[in-house]
Structures are given as C-alpha cells and as structure tokens.
C-alpha cells in the first residue's frame, strides 16, 4: 500500500538507508502534504479546506525562506539547499 500511494516517500526512505539522514524523508513528507492540501483546496472551494490549505502553504513557504537564509548564512552549497526546499 505504501509503495503505491507514496512512491516519493518510499524513495526517500531508500535514501535514508543509504545516507543515514532523515532530511530526504522529511522533505518528501512535506512535499506530499503540500500536494494533498493544494488538492483539497481546489476540490472543496466553499469549505474550511481552503483556509487550512492556504495556512499550510504559507507555513511551507516560511520554512523554505528559513532554509534559504540559514543555508546562505552558513555558506552551504546551493545544490544541498535546493534539495531541502519544499516545492
């Protein structure tokens, strides 16, 4: 079931076993949640899903900005920073 519904998360778990880091798993879960919230936002336009989806998307945008700023301050590689972003 997990393999069919969450292929990106499954791939991130493989990366976890290879790299011994939970960062890919966290990013994959955030990406999945963002996609689901955007889907709910458009399926039920007159429900509270719109507000919750907007709030979640705002939270992800804030997280992305924090990752960008802190990564630049610490002098991290741009490719590494890009992997951490939720899109």
3D structure, described in words:
This protein has helices spanning 2-5, 7-19, 23-43, 49-73, 78-84. By secondary structure, the chain is mainly α. α3 (23-43) runs antiparallel to α4. The two termini are 24 Å apart. The mean pLDDT is 87. It has five helices and no strands. It has one domain.
SSE diagram, text form:
Elements: H1 2-5, H2 7-19, H3 23-43, H4 49-73, H5 78-84
Helix pairs in contact: 2-3, 3-4, 4-5
Annotation keywords:
mainly alpha; about 90 residues; 5 helices; single chain
Structure at a glance:
The chain has 87 residues and is mainly alpha-helical.
Dominant shape: flat
Hey, roughly how much beta strand do the residues contain? under 5%
Helix content: over 70%
Number of domains: 1
How many helices does DSSP assign? 5
Q: Cα distance, first to last residue?
A: 24 Å
Calculate Rg over CA atoms.
15 Å
- Biggest sheet, in brief? none
Spans of at least 5 consecutive residues with low confidence: none
Q: What's the order of the H and E elements?
A: HHHHH
Secondary-structure-based class equals: mainly alpha
pLDDT averaged residue by residue: 87
Query: What is the assembly state of the chains in this entry?
Result: single chain
DSSP strand tally: 0
């Amino acid at each position: 079931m997990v393999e069919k519904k969450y292929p990106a998360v499954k791939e991130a778990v493989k990366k976890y076993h290879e790299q011994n880091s939970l960062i890919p798993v966290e990013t994959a879960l955030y990406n999945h949640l963002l996609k689901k919230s955007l889907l709910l936002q458009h399926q039920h336009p007159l429900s509270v899903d719109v507000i919750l989806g907007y709030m979640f998307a705002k939270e992800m945008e804030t997280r992305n900005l924090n990752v960008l700023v802190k990564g630049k301050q610490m002098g991290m590689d741009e490719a590494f920073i890009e992997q951490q972003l939720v899109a």
